[in-house]
Design brief:
Layout lengths: L19 E4 H4 E5 L9 E9 L1 H6 L8 E4 L13 E4 L1 E2 L8 E3 L7 E3 L3 E6 L5 H7 L3 H10 L1 E2 L3 E2 L2 H4 L3 E4 L2 H38 L21 E4 H4 E5 L13 E4 L16 E2 L11 E4 L8 E3 L8 E4 L3 E6 L5 H9 L2 H6 L11 H5 L2 E4 L2 H38 L3
Parallel strand pairs: 3-8, 15-19
Antiparallel strand pairs: 1-12, 2-9, 3-4, 5-7, 5-9, 6-11, 10-11, 13-21, 14-20, 15-16, 17-18, 17-20
Length: 408
């Protein structure tokens, strides 16, 4: 085949010519997952089965996401080189997600909500893992999804899909490249997860527990008991205003909404604007969500450019700290006590928290010097987490671009 569209946009040196396309049905056969099982059959036994989540989440299935089941010689055992496909999902974009089995195992089966595919010819497994999740192949699979409230794909239809099949040596080159990229992404993900776990541990140990007057872990030079304060004692509360009729996709003033505060207290752009406003945010204040998810979560404003003002809608509030409290410390103290705000929220369709309940939030507080130490410590930790998150996001975007350009 000499069709130009069968030549990838990016290619390794030493390879030329158009790629061949072959139907899955011409080079392999399907097999079923577990059949004839009831709830009582799962959760025990010396055999294992590959879960739906394992297939859905992982281009290469992992041994970490297997569940127990009894050995059953009537079932199809999976083999190294098998490929699994999910059969249904709530959206067509998530139907037919693929996962390659690269392990030499015995007595491992496949869950009943997926089906297996066993190639009759040699493929590089890392190549298959990336190729089957590339935009070009995902588009073909999504096109075949059928349904209304839930979407499905049949084994017969899947076997009609044509996949690009370069030479085995080129497959190995491509597969090795994506394997190295995936390993790098996994390494950064582990580092990020470790940092988040460390932060969680520090939040538990650097603040007093269960009415205690001092924390378990403390900076040197501080020995005084922490004191209790209400939020109204250390901040001034300002509510936002209804802006729904004035919201634009572009404008003079960026609107701070519920979406502006993440669950871990990071302020982010809402992408919404207004052109008419009178009350603007101040630097170094806290923004708190007042309804729906993440009730009571706060993010801290930092540098607000004089050329760009920010205003609040009515579902968020601004807390302006006085001289007795450090904003960075207070942000962490509030976010680690989300349960207080969740259990005091009320509403039929939408959960909200009142100004009174916000202002009556009671917490422990040390002197300003110790607050500054704690605030600076967590800021440095948050900056490191953000840096690793940016690196991880960049790597994922790079992979997305390579998947787009290295397959046809």
């Amino acid at each position: 085949m000499t069709d130009k569209k069968m030549v990838p946009q990016i290619r390794f040196k030493g390879f030329s010519g158009a790629w061949e396309e072959r139907k899955l049905g011409d080079v392999g056969n399907t097999f079923t997952g577990l059949t004839g099982k009831t709830k009582e059959d799962f959760g025990h036994g010396s055999a294992k089965f590959v879960t739906y989540v394992n297939v859905f989440q992982n281009p290469i299935a992992t041994l970490d996401q297997l569940d127990a089941i009894e050995i059953d010689e009537k079932q199809n055992q999976v083999q190294k080189g098998d490929i699994f496909f999910t059969t249904s999902s709530e959206t067509p974009e998530e139907v037919g997600m693929s996962s390659v089995w690269t392990h030499d195992t015995e007595n491992v089966y496949l869950n009943s909500f997926t089906f297996g595919y066993r190639p009759r010819v040699s493929f590089d497994l890392n190549y298959m893992a990336s190729m089957l999740r590339s935009p070009s192949i995902r588009k073909k699979i999504t096109f075949l999804a059928q349904g209304i409230s839930r979407y499905n794909i049949s084994k017969t239809k899947m076997l009609e899909i044509e996949i690009p099949t370069p030479t085995l040596s080129e497959q190995e080159k491509i597969g090795s490249f994506f394997k190295e990229l995936d390993d790098t992404i996994a390494l950064h993900q582990r580092k990020l997860d470790l940092l988040k776990e460390q932060k969680k541990g520090y939040l538990q140990k650097m603040f007093p527990k269960n009415g205690a007057k001092v924390p378990e872990l403390r900076f040197a030079g501080f020995a005084d008991d922490w004191e209790q304060r209400r939020l109204k004692d250390v901040t001034d509360y300002f509510n936002g205003k209804a802006q729904e009729d004035n919201v634009l996709d572009d404008g003079l003033y960026e609107l701070i909404t519920l979406k502006s505060v993440s669950s871990d207290g990071v302020l982010q752009s809402s992408g919404k604007y207004v052109n008419d406003a009178t009350d603007f945010l101040q630097e170094g204040t806290l923004i708190m969500t007042l309804s729906e998810q993440n009730i009571g979560a706060v993010g801290m404003t930092t540098i607000i450019p004089t050329s760009n003002y920010y205003v609040l809608n009515q579902r968020v509030a601004e807390l302006r700290p006085n001289s007795t409290v450090v904003a960075g410390f207070l942000t962490k103290q509030i976010n680690r006590n989300q349960n207080y705000f969740e259990i005091r929220s009320a509403g039929t369709k939408v959960q909200n928290i009142s100004k009174g309940n916000v202002e009556n939030f009671t917490f422990e507080i040390p002197n300003v010097d110790e607050q500054e130490k704690i605030g600076a410590f967590f800021k440095q930790l948050d900056d490191t987490i953000t840096l690793h998150q940016h690196k991880l996001d960049l790597l994922k975007e790079q992979k997305k671009g390579f998947l787009q350009k290295m397959f046809v």
